[in-house]
Write a structure and sequence with these properties.
442 residues; mainly alpha; 2 domains; two-stranded antiparallel sheet; 79% helix; 1% strand
């Protein structure tokens, strides 16, 4: 009975949904390579891979901030006993404005994007625009579900996203479809189906559902999100910039490593694959990050700043423990596992792989520290932390050392710098004096 209750808990549900999303991405890259490689006239498989990375970088980079800010705003209203529909409507309007802005920028740079990255296939650019809209919808709905602590519904949207990619992709492969646009369309529409399932979950709620609050006057903006400029709150804009900068810290090291090691392609491939391998433990903490933000926001609403500090320290400690275990694993068994993971490509020492794992430890810590800063309204600090992390990563790349060592230093320097900034900010915001001031104000 206890095991059944545990399996129905938020962590396994969100973890299972996330596993389907990750599997959907793996199936997409594998299926398109199998289906398009034999007909690879202009490099069709590479073009779909380009679309895949653009969607993950641009769409998720822009709209993950919508989910986080929506979760914070909904959590804050629930903690205060106020209806949530007004802030959900305000968040949806801001997401649509952000979609319009990002689409305009995308179209502005489209001549540079379509040629070198998408091989002249304008239909893939259209699918990227669809992905922006679908991600805007899904992020708004998921933010509402997370803020309402309806984690089963949140997991249902993840499962829907994964399954509506996996099943149609396998069917396209089975029926011998060889059109690039067909595979791309399946990939980008999955988030739209996820959003629709999320809306159905919200409408079937028994408390604070959209039906019950349909007559509530709409809110003009989001409480605690700062001033609104051109229809987008300051808080949301800061989180969007922070998310995009986060993408740089996470995704640029393997790209720059390939450039620095252009004369040694096998080593470059090994390092890029090793970075991907060392980042796998980060997925274990995504469910925890989703759960933390509404809980910490509710704690702030109760003036329980000390509780925010305790919860952040506990989760950060868990990240450190898991990260150290991962570093030890990479140091001792990494040289054996890497050639299996990369189909025979290896050649990296245990020390190199363990060094790459240091960055993962601090990235995991940043991912569970960021929700506390958002809950405390420190959106600007989040952006500053990622900017400093990006600068530290760039500086480490130009250190005059052997290229492989430079890559190891950069993957560690960026995450260490941003966690240091976050740690100082959390310490100040949750210090004894801050707690005392909060009690006086309340």
């Amino acid at each position: 009975m206890n095991l059944l209750r545990l399996l129905r808990g938020p962590m396994p549900l969100i973890g299972g949904g996330l596993a389907l999303v990750v599997l959907g991405g793996l199936v997409f890259t594998s299926v398109t390579a199998r289906a398009l490689q034999p007909f690879d006239r202009p490099g069709l498989a590479a073009l779909t891979a380009g679309l895949y990375y653009l969607v993950n970088t641009v769409a998720l980079g822009v709209f993950s901030g919508v989910e986080q800010e929506g979760s914070r705003a909904v959590s804050q209203e629930r903690a205060a006993g106020r209806p949530v529909t007004p802030v959900v409507q305000a968040m949806a309007r801001q997401a649509l404005r952000l979609f319009a802005l990002s689409t305009a920028i995308l179209l502005l740079v489209s001549p540079l994007l379509v040629g070198p990255v998408l091989g002249g296939h304008w239909e893939l650019l259209a699918e990227l625009v669809i992905a922006l809209f679908a991600t805007a919808c899904a992020s708004t709905v998921r933010g509402t579900l997370a803020g309402s602590q309806r984690f089963g519904g949140y997991a249902a949207t993840q499962a829907t996203e994964g399954l509506t990619r996996i099943v149609p992709l396998l069917l396209l492969l089975l029926f011998g479809v060889h059109q690039t646009w067909a595979y791309g369309l399946v990939f980008v529409l999955a988030q739209l189906f996820a959003a629709l399932v999320g809306v159905l979950v919200l409408r079937t709620g028994t408390s604070q559902s959209w039906r019950q609050l349909a007559t509530t006057a709409p809110a003009r903006d989001l409480p605690g999100a700062g001033k609104v400029w051109f229809g987008i709150s300051t808080g949301l804009a800061l989180l969007v910039l922070a998310s995009l900068t986060n993408q740089a810290v996470v995704n640029l090291p393997p790209v720059i490593a390939t450039a620095k090691l252009a004369t040694e392609p096998l080593i470059a491939t090994a390092i890029a694959g090793a970075i991907g391998l060392t980042r796998l433990p980060m997925f274990a903490f995504v469910p925890l990050q989703t759960m933390l933000l509404p809980q910490l926001t509710a704690a702030v609403g109760r003036n329980d700043i000390a509780g925010v500090r305790r919860q952040t320290l506990r989760t950060a400690a868990a990240c450190v423990v898991l990260g150290l275990l991962g570093i030890a694993f990479l140091g001792f068994l990494g040289p054996i596992v890497l050639p299996i993971y990369l189909s025979g490509i290896g050649g990296l020492s245990g020390a190199t792989l363990a060094g790459l794992g240091i960055g993962t430890l601090f990235l995991m810590t940043a991912n569970v520290t960021q929700p506390a800063l958002i809950a405390l309204g420190r959106h600007r600090t989040v952006l500053v932390a990622y900017l400093i992390g990006t600068a530290a990563m760039a500086l480490a790349f130009v250190v005059p050392v052997e290229p492989t060592l430079a890559v190891v230093l950069s993957t560690a320097a960026g995450p260490i710098a941003l966690v240091a900034v976050m740690a100082v900010a959390i310490t100040k915001a949750t210090s004894t004096s801050a707690v005392d001031r909060q009690h006086v104000m309340s």
